[in-house]
Amino acid sequence: MTAESSVVCVFSNKGGSGKTTIAVHLALAWSQLTPTALLDTDPQGTATEWLKRRPADLKSPVTVACPGREAAERALRLAREERYRFVVIDLPPHATAQIAWLLQESDLILVPTRPTAADLVTLQQTVDLVHASKKRAGFILNAFRPQLVEAREITPILAKYGMPIIGVLGDRIAYSRGLPAGLGGHEVGDPSADEEVMKLAKRVIKARNDL
Asked: Is residue 64 part of a domain?
């Protein structure tokens, strides 16, 4: 493995936006093809708990709990030294020095958002932090239901923030059903989720290269 690591941060200043769902599914999709690390810097440790439940015979990303900056620095340094192709960082929903540092270390920042008033009203705080990092960034629409009026209106609303919409995860029971069992939503027999996760993983790679 000679390529440098690509560091992808998943960040939103709002809890419940779907950060861990997106981080886990990207890391899981990429880990089937190439060495991938998932750094869980959220004190809630949801991604780490997910891995504990994952069947041992399934291929998984190397998942590391990073409860503080020192742990995050060490894990990121080791992942780069070991030349993991992808390093996905699940960030907590707070504005701290650790988060600012990790955003600076990223090659691409993904901002999950649901097309709801509650998510959009706090989005400016997240975007301000992302823009301050001066890193490549884009939105991921999470729990997306295209038939809703809010979903149809989300594109022009997000356009004013100067960041592209990179990809989408739909509002599927497969995602909430899979994580407690240590599985991805695309691993519980939902072909639409499987297509969606693979498409998202490819679009994020393209965004990493093209933005």
From this structure: yes
63: which strand partners? 38
Residue 120's domain spans which residues? 6-210
d(CA 183, CA 121): 32
Q: pTM (2 decimals)? A: 0.92
Query: Measured in Å, how far apart are the chain's first and last C-alpha atoms?
Result: 24
Within a domain: 78: yes
Residues 91 and 70: their CA atoms lie apart, in Å, by 15
Total structural domains within the chain = 1
The 10s digit of each residue's pLDDT in 2-37 is 468 999 999 998 777 889 999 999 999 999 999 999
Q: How far apart are CA 42 and CA 44, in angstroms?
A: 5
Beta-carbon contacts of 137 under 8 Å, excluding residues fewer than 6 positions away, are 108, 109, 110, 111, 130, 131, 163, 211
Return all residues near 121 (Cβ < 8 A) that are at least 6 apart: none
Give me the sign of the Cα torsion angle 31, 37, 42, 47.
positive
pLDDT tens for 125-147 read 899 999 999 999 999 999 888 66
**Strand ranges of the sheet holding 165-170, from the earlier edge strand across to the other edge:** 62-65, 36-40, 86-90, 6-10, 108-113, 137-144, 165-170
